[in-house]
Amino acid sequence: MADSLPPATPDEAKTTDSGSADFKAIGVDTSKPRPKDELTLEHKGYTCPQEYVNEYTPMEFEELVEQFAHYDVDQSGSLDLFEVQKILHEMDLDFSTESAKQFMDDVDEDKTGLLDFPEFATFVAKVKSGNPKVSER
Ligand SMILES: [Ca+2]
């Protein structure tokens, strides 16, 4: 009987070359639950823009809503320049009509000349963060 050995498994790839670094793809774990930026702030039907939820505590947010409702004297759902100026005054920020208007323009994303609630939340977040000046773009 021919004693034929099975062909040796080609093992030549096993060179002793350990000089080549083997880069493993670094697995980015996207399955982790996101931290608490899923938080939403809502009060009386007003919702805080997601990018500013970390700027307010729930209590501060309630106050923000109350302020908004309070200063929205004509209950239009948005604040006009006159109303915004009253808030600035209330916050002890001295703005000339001109700079108040500029500041307002800065947060008035849809250029309506009025601040709706999300714009107002942006506005106050900026004032809170110590930036009462018109921010640079
Ligand atoms: Ca607006």
What's the short story on this structure?
With 137 residues, this protein is mainly alpha-helical. Helix content is 34%, strand content 6%. It has a domain at 36-128: Recoverin, domain 1.
Tags for this entry?
137 residues; Recoverin, domain 1; two-stranded antiparallel ribbon; two-stranded antiparallel sheet; 4 helices; 4 strands
Q: Helix coverage percent of residues?
A: 25-40%
Query: So what's the overall shape?
Result: elongated
Distance N terminus to C terminus?
88 Å
Rg for CA atoms? 30 Å
Order of helical and strand elements: EEHEHHEH
CATH architecture of the domain at 36-128: Orthogonal Bundle
Sheet/helix structural class: mainly alpha
- Spans of at least 5 consecutive residues whose pLDDT stays below 50 are none
Unique ligands: calcium ion
Strand order of the largest sheet: 1-2
What is the beta-strand fraction?
A: 5-15%
Q: Tell me the number of strands.
A: 4
Highest CATH level, the class of the domain at 36-128: Mainly Alpha
Main sheet: strands, sense, barrel: 2 strands, antiparallel
Going by CATH, what is the homologous superfamily of the domain at 36-128?
A: EF-hand
Count every helix, treating DSSP H or I runs of 4 or more residues as helices: 4
What would the CATH topology of the domain at 36-128 be? Answer: Recoverin, domain 1
Mean pLDDT: 79
